[in-house]
Amino acid sequence: MKQEQEHFKHIKGWGIDADADNEPTYPMKNYTGDDHQRSNWNRPALQKPSVEVLHSNERPTYSAVIGETVPPTGLSGMIRRYAFQFSESSYGHWLPLLLADRINVVEGIADDLAKGKIPNIFVERGWNAEWKYNRPARIQKILITAVTIGAVLALSQLKKRIKTK
User: Fold this and answer.
1) How far apart are CA 119 and CA 125, in angstroms?
2) Of 39, 44, 108, which Cα lies nearest the Cα of 73?
3) What digits encode the pLDDT tens for the residues 42-73?
4) How many CA atoms lie within 13 A of 119 on its CB side?
5) Tell me, what's the pLDDT at 144?
6) How far apart are CA 20 and CA 109, in angstroms?
7) CA pseudo-torsion sign 138, 139, 141, 142
8) Which of 28, 29, 23 has its CA nearest to residue 15?
9) Contact 46, 64 (CB under 8 A)
10) What is the mean pLDDT of the chain?
11) How many CB atoms lie within 10 A of CB 100?
């Protein structure tokens, strides 16, 4: 260890925690043995859900505290229910949840519009802040989006021309 420290001492901060004499938890100070008592605790009372709450099929019960503010609804809720049929270790669980999140954003905008509220998408998506603090990245994203939309439109026009011939 001393040889390694000498070899790499030109790197600032390297091995700062490698010296056992300088490490604050070595040797263990004021050890009382309480660390071994932490398994002797009583599980808190479970919160009773008042709305539908999705939980892993790998666990028999809910956790002690659950979130109830946004119950699964609409198309995104259907996708979430489908996703929770699968194990957390599979793509069948996580990919539908990602899709459901994206769909939920659109549902939220539609819900706002249905209630007569016009969402300020520029502020809510952080575009104003990005324009102010990271303008080159914002411009790059706008250009990439424009080129992608242009390419899709050009390809669709090309397909129409080929079909009409």
Assistant:
1) 10
2) 108
3) 777 888 889 998 988 888 888 888 888 889 99
4) 17
5) 97
6) 57
7) positive
8) 23
9) yes
10) 85
11) 21
